Amino acid sequence: MSARIGVIGCGWWATRAHLPALQANPDAVIAGIADPDPENRARAAERFAVPADRVYADAGEMLAKAELDAAIVAVPHDLHAPLARAVLDRGLHLLLEKPMTIRPPDARVLAALAKERGVELIIGYPWHYNRQVLAVRDAIADGRIGTIEYVSCQFASIVRELYRGNPEPYRDVLGYSVNPPGLRTYADPEISGGGQGQTQVTHSAALLFLITGLRPVSVAAMTEPFELAVDLADAVVTRFDNGAVGSLGSTGSVLPGHDEILDYRIFGSAGHILFDVNEGVAVIHGLHGEVHRLPGLPAEERYPDWAPADNLVDIVLGRGANGSPASLGVLTVEFVDAIYRAAREARTVRVGAEG
Question: Which domains occur in the chain, in start order?
Fold first, then answer.
């Protein structure tokens, strides 16, 4: 038996990550692709050997005509909610790219709909499948550093030109081997919902919540667009449900050719963890002075961009659990929304209380 997967959106990330993963998976069949851009879908069909009768200009037509077990939605942020709902309404398992949605109410509706239909909704966060991440999560859950009291996270990435509507400088760095991002996809706030918060903090925040099990309850924040129409740098202070506090900082200003940074420092009542995700280094410092360094990861395994699609295939075939569930996606949408509200209103706001 093979998992029959339809892919909605044939832009950069679908052709960089999801379609290659499906093509390489012996248990998957690319049962349809849909994209309103004729050049995007033609290049994708040619690169991934998708027959003409499985290529659609309209996602609704593909969902109505193709024989599918599941679908992947990888489209601009503002289209996530309606297209995800169309997939879930048909009772299909779904891999939905991050951010889950722009608006928290839409995210909550999708999570409820997936539960009602009895299907899995995966949110596209590849770091959630990193073996070091899962080992750090388990160490914290096992009480290796006691009760978490303070966390910090720094995420610095190569995206400034995307926010300017100029993806070309990143062609080699970000791997536009088939289709590049649309010029407005990340630059137009009406489409993206914002800059660094929606595109990058969504990654680092969701990963923090996964690793620690903490849930944010209130946020104070500052954001700065500099010369852009969307935020480039975000600074956030958070209180969590167990009383812990933390800081998250992020910027999209790393220059092409320089290393990106994703770094967590997690302090508990009985020790602390230093975790450099991009370098593949995780060290646990225990209560009695012991130091445990987790096994390193080779560079190619630190950001397993194929893993969400493989997870979708495994779910269809009944042999895997959801590694990046909708509940985590909803929480992260609520958190990012709180960042923007706190920055706009210059006050501390409650997470999930957007009104």
Answer: 3-127+307-323 (3.40.50.720), 128-302+332-350 (3.30.360.10)
